[in-house]
Specification:
- By secondary structure, the chain is mainly alpha-helical.
- It has one domain.
- About 65% of the residues lie in helices and about 5% in strands.
- The chain has helices at about 20-60, 60-95, 100-115, and strands at about 10, 20.
């Protein structure tokens, strides 16, 4: 694989996503930006869900807390798996080694973080770049 700025005849992750025309290229860049911003939305939603669930767990009685903790861990694991799968798809887009698509991933991440990232200074401690 070689880094390139050439967009013609670029295959993006799937056989059916093959860029052959300029409008197809523009659509693909916009789609990657939106897809990446969607990943940031998912991360934000999962973080808010976790905070809400922790509040519910802290108010649960001792007898119901064990079941609630298991349910929480199961759901958290499913959400984590979804995030990892999503981030791997983004990684595959990045691994096309196409400079335009790489920029689209970065722009989508920045846009998503701007729209759905927390404005609290300490919230970024829990949000890392491990799956970007």
């Amino acid at each position: 694989m070689l880094f390139t700025w050439n967009w013609k005849n670029t295959c993006v992750v799937f056989k059916w996503w093959h860029i052959r025309t300029l409008p197809g290229f523009v659509f693909s860049v916009l789609a990657v930006i939106l897809f990446t911003a969607g990943y940031e939305l998912l991360k934000s939603w999962v973080n808010r869900w976790q905070l809400g669930y922790v509040n519910v767990l802290s108010g649960a009685s001792a007898s119901s807390s064990e079941v609630a903790i298991r349910r929480y861990k199961f759901k958290r694991s499913l959400f984590y798996g979804l995030q990892v799968g999503y981030s791997f798809l983004l990684m595959l887009v990045f691994m096309t080694y196409n400079g335009w698509l790489m920029i689209a991933v970065a722009v989508g991440a920045a846009l998503g973080n701007y729209l759905w990232g927390s404005s609290s200074p300490d919230s970024n401690v829990t949000r890392d770049m491990s799956c970007h």
